[in-house]
Amino acid sequence: MPDEVLVKSREVKKTYHVGQVEVPALRGVTMDVRRGDFAAIVGPSGSGKTTLLNLIGALDVPTEGDLSVFGDEVASLGKGERADMRLHSLGFVFQAYNLVPVLTARENVEFVLELQGMGPERRDRAHEVLDHLGLGELADRRPNELSGGQQQRVAVARAVASRPRLVLADEPTANLDGENAEILLQMMRDLNREQGITFLFSTHDPRVVRHARRVVKLIDGRVSSDEEKEATSPINSDADAE
User: Fold this and answer.
1) Closest C-alpha among 129, 10, 154 to residue 69
2) DSSP-derived secondary structure letter, 103
């Protein structure tokens, strides 16, 4: 079902309060995320990119509007239900990597699988994903023994190891040089094409935009444009048009 809608946002607004002052971050966002998307939310700093990603990731709830993720209205879910959604159906890739420093690369990937209740087979799953991302020989190294690009690939491995329905990536290339950014993006495109994992980025990096098949532009908390760059779903096609 490549046209399955995973995220449906309708006039979503988010307002923060700083003392007595209301600060609108989103002013009415309407958009969908479909299964198989490799999509980028772009816009200048302060446009609401990260706020929108946090709402979709059930890390926060809208102030107004309707936002459903996997058919569930986010605002109607309790904290435990939102935590369960994040654990079992979503993967997260953060700009700052957020790896556990005392754990090895393999243990960082295993950690989420253990929280999900997976048994000893989680070690094999972790090795499989790290191998796929070219990190098999580095599985027993801790984060401080890895380069920035390697750490971000471990973060991607952790995000996809549980085979989530949707991976949310917040500025994943911001701390990477050009070569490492291209390596990371190509690996994520391969995961999207070969395994059907849906990716949604927030970014202002033109390198991410080049790879994205769909670009949603935010300006001042609103969708300014939504461009489909390829008509063919990556799930059903071996084509990899640039």
Assistant:
1) 10
2) S
Q: Which domains does the chain possess?
A: 5-101+165-228 (3.40.50.300)
Is residue 183 a contact partner of residue 16, using CB atoms and an 8 Å limit? no
Q: Which pLDDT belongs to residue 174?
A: 86
By CB atoms closer than 10 A (0-12, 13-18, 19+), residue 225 is exposed
Annotate 194-205 with DSSP letters as a single string. HH--EEEEEE--
pLDDT digits (tens, 9 = 90+) for 200-215: 999 989 999 999 999 9
Buried b (16+ CB within 10 A) or exposed e, 138-175: bbebebeebeebbbbbbbbbbbbbbebbbbbbbbbbee
Q: What's the CA gap between 155 and 34, in Å, rounded?
A: 23
Query: For the segment 60-74, what is each residue's pLDDT rounded down to a tens digit?
Result: 999 999 999 999 999
Check if the beta carbon of residue 224 is closer than 8 Å to that of residue 51.
no
User: Which residue's entry shows tokens 């461009």?
Assistant: 227
Of 45, 76, 69, 70, the residue nearest 170 (C-alpha): 45
At position 73, the amino acid (one-letter code) is E
- SS3 category, 241: coil
